[in-house]
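W.,

You were right to be curious about this one. When I first looked at the sequence I had no strong expectations either way, so I just let the prediction run and decided to look at it fresh. Below is the sequence, 110 residues in total, followed by the output.
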Amino acid sequence: MKMFMLKSFMLASLMFISVLFGMQQANEGIHKMKGYDDPEFKSAFSIKEEEDGTYKSAILGNDVSSHDLEQKRKKLEEMKAFNLFSSLGKTLADGVSAVIEKTVKLITGK
């Protein structure tokens, strides 16, 4: 059993390292295919610290602030969208929790 676990761990480690190596090779290949180093080539998500100590974040080149997120949250609350699956999941979770709680109380006698 120990040998099986050791072999499985070694195989999983080898696969993980191979994936990381492949991602690095793909990144280098993209830069080689481009032919030059473009300073306008931005990452998908970036965070920069300003001089006053605040942080600015950008997703796909678009600036994102907590104010924007707050507006979106308020808009979603105003819409009061009903999600059937969400309400069913909450109801099911509450029911399962109640049944388990009663079963534990019955078993422990408290």
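Here's what jumped out at me. Strands lie at 45-49, 55-59, 62-64. And, maybe more interesting for your project: The first helix runs from residue 2 to 34.

Coffee later to discuss?

I.
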